[in-house]
Design a protein that fits this description.
The complex is a heterodimer of chains A (about 325) and B (about 260). Chain A has about 325 residues and is an alpha/beta fold. Chain A contains 12 helices and 14 strands. Chain A has helices at about 45-50, 70-75, 95-105, 110-120, 140-150, 170-185, 195-200, 220-225, 240-250, 270-285, 300-310, 310-315; strands at about 5-15, 15-30, 30-35, 60-65, 65, 80, 155-160, 185-190, 205-210, 210-215, 230-235, 255-260, 265-270, 290-295. In chain A, helix 6 links the parallel strand 7 and strand 8. Chain A is elongated. With about 260 residues, chain B is mainly α. Chain B has one domain (about 5-255). Helices cover about 75% and strands about 0% of the residues of chain B. Chain B is built from 13 helices and no strands. Chain B is elongated, with a radius of gyration of 19 Å. Classes of the chains: A alpha/beta (about 325), B mainly alpha (about 260). The interface between A and B is medium-sized, with 27 and 23 residues.
């Protein structure tokens, strides 16, 4: 399928500071692309260029067939953005914000009211629809920001930290509604520094750090790209015979084997799911009885650390 | 090409904000009524017959018409403060991301601010017309439309300055200076006959003079006019067009990139 978004050498500088540095990235129509990185990675600046709010210093983005540096007005009509910080005046109510947003996006009156009601009810903020923004909690204001795009249902929906400040129930609701939007044909860009959110929602994840794109792939493949990233811990009834370690090392995807305790080995390997039958077969062949086997796979934080040498938390602090 | 429907939706947002200003509106009407009832009436008794003749026979009528225009101007430039409030709340970025062109956005906001300002001074226009009377509905309608054009242009001016300065403090100071000069170097509050010639020259090309003259014409105070109505209309159209064009150009260039203070 042809990409619906194509970033070509996309760069944004503010004076001497380069916020986004020669970004080349394509987004397929109908996918959810997670844009992952710590604060200051360049995610929001990238989004603002996609939304034509900021002009690129160099390079460009094609939104559908439109080059944002030449046909920004046409490009803008395909995009909707739920910003990181809710964009509400203190005196606005959720209803007035959503009603005007839907109107400016060209939704006819009946459809507008129907969609707004549905989204407000789904997000659990129907009862506060006429309250002014200053009396709403941070989480509720965030839901109103997300609701704009769920009402608009644009061809390209961009969510910048969509569940920040939102409670667990609300998070799952928003994730479900984002998936529904994708299922209806929208392409989703999800900028987040929440690893779990990126992992559960995204079909591909682009990791950014200091304005640069480090890697972009499916979450599974990103995790598999860490050599020895999967860990299988095997505990035995008695001690661990020395030959077991040697035999385990012969399995092709195994990178390292170490004796964690007297009766336990830790196997560092790639694609644990493929190696598990061979490990079980080996233990059977050697007549060894395992008491337990535990498999753990690397997290996206491990992936980030693999590519940057820093955890996301460390990168945020810098 | 601009889409009139989208322009109106943008405008509607600013017009609706009038509903949030009920107490401010009430205070301004009270202030206006007091200004007319005390200052206007008393000043009327201070002038000689020949002076009053230069103002169409009544300073009260001259003054009340001029006051409407100065209030319309100060209400229209309020849109600049709205731009700063929106920048504070990040709403500028939101507006720039909407599926409307920059031109539709600036023109829509200028129209919205123009309509809002005209509605805001509506009660004052009623008071003024109660005192002056009006010769014909057509003349009054034409005059009110020109007042709208004036408010539209002043809104464009305010958006242009706000986008150019990106600093609410500087905007406040500059607009204060512009207000002081533009109102005082116009025939809004006193006729050109009593101004030094170098002031009179500036007053004769001042959009506030054009607007005041057109409102006086609409109210039947024709002997008090400095500019022929047609020329005043041309002046107001030129004023509105210039600042709408500048507003569009600057809004696009200056608002993208942040840096608001």
């Amino acid at each position: 399928m042809a990409p619906i978004i194509r970033m070509v050498g996309l760069t944004k500088r503010f004076g001497g500071f380069t916020a986004v540095d020669r970004l080349d990235l394509e987004v397929e129509e109908g996918e959810i692309l997670g844009l992952l990185g710590p604060n200051g990675a360049g995610k929001t600046t990238t989004i603002l260029m996609l939304a034509t709010v900021l002009k690129p210093t160099e390079g460009t983005v094609y939104i559908g067939p439109y080059d944002v540096t030449k046909e920004a007005d046409k490009a803008r009509r395909l995009v909707g953005v739920a910003f990181q910080e809710p964009k509400l005046l203190w005196v606005d109510s959720p209803w007035s914000v959503l009603n005007w947003h839907a109107k400016v996006c060209g939704l006819p009156s009946g459809e507008r009211r129907r969609r707004i009601r549905w989204v407000l009810e789904e997000l659990g903020i129907w009862d506060v629809r006429f309250k002014s923004a200053h009396s709403l909690s941070g989480g509720t204001r965030k839901r109103v920001e997300v609701a704009k795009i769920l009402v608009q249902r644009p061809k390209i929906a961009i969510f910048d930290e969509p569940t920040a400040q939102v409670d667990v129930v609300g998070k799952h609701k928003i994730w479900g509604m984002i998936r529904e939007l994708r299922d209806e044909g929208s392409t989703i860009i999800l900028a987040t520094n929440e690893l779990h959110e990126a992992d559960v929602l995204s079909q591909r994840i682009a990791i950014m750090h200091r304005g640069k794109l480090l890697v972009c792939d499916e979450p599974r493949r990103l995790k598999d790209s860490i050599p020895g990233g999967d860990v299988v811990e095997v505990s035995f009834e008695g001690g661990v015979p020395e030959m077991v370690t040697e035999e385990l090392r012969r399995i092709p995807t195994v990178v390292e084997v170490s004796a964690a305790r007297q009766n336990q080995v830790k196997i560092y390997l790639n694609r644990a799911e493929e190696a598990l039958p061979r490990i079980a077969e080996l233990l059977l062949r050697l007549g060894l009885q395992a008491k337990s086997m535990r498999v753990s796979e690397p997290s996206l934080d491990d992936v980030f650390a693999h590519y940057t040498g820093l955890t996301i938390e460390e990168a945020q602090r810098r | 090409m601009m889409n009139p429907k989208r322009v109106w939706v943008v405008a509607e947002r600013d017009v609706r904000s009038l509903l949030r200003q009920k107490s401010m509106l009430a205070m301004r009407v009270a202030w206006f009524a007091a200004q007319v009832a005390f200052f206007g009436l008393i000043a009327n008794y201070m002038f000689r017959e020949d002076v009053l003749a230069a103002m169409g026979g009544s300073y009260l009528e001259y003054y009340v018409a001029g006051m409407v225009v100065t209030m319309l101007y100060s209400t229209a430039i309020f849109i600049g403060y709205d731009v700063y409030e929106e920048a504070d709340h990040g709403v500028v970025e939101y507006l720039l991301s909407l599926p409307v062109s920059r031109r539709e956005l600036v023109v829509g906001r200028s129209i919205g601010s123009g309509v809002r300002s005209l509605l805001h001074v509506g009660p004052m226009i009623v008071i003024a017309l109660y005192l002056t009377g009006t010769p014909s509905a057509l003349q009054l309608s034409t005059s009110l439309f020109c007042l709208f054009l004036f408010a539209f242009g002043a809104s464009g001016l305010s958006i242009t300055v706000a986008a150019a300065l990106k600093s609410s403090d500087r905007f406040d100071i500059l607009m204060g200076v512009v207000d002081a000069l533009a109102v005082r170097l116009s025939t809004a509050l006193y006729p050109v006959a009593f101004m030094p010639s170098y002031y009179g020259g500036l007053a004769s090309i001042n959009p506030i003079t054009f607007a005041a003259d057109l409102f006086r014409w609409g109210a039947g105070l024709e002997s008090a006019l400095l500019t022929p109505p047609l020329l005043a209309v041309v002046g107001i159209v030129a004023f509105s067009s210039t600042f709408t064009f500048l507003g569009v150009a600057l809004y696009e260039r200056r608002l993208e990139g942040g840096g608001w203070r």
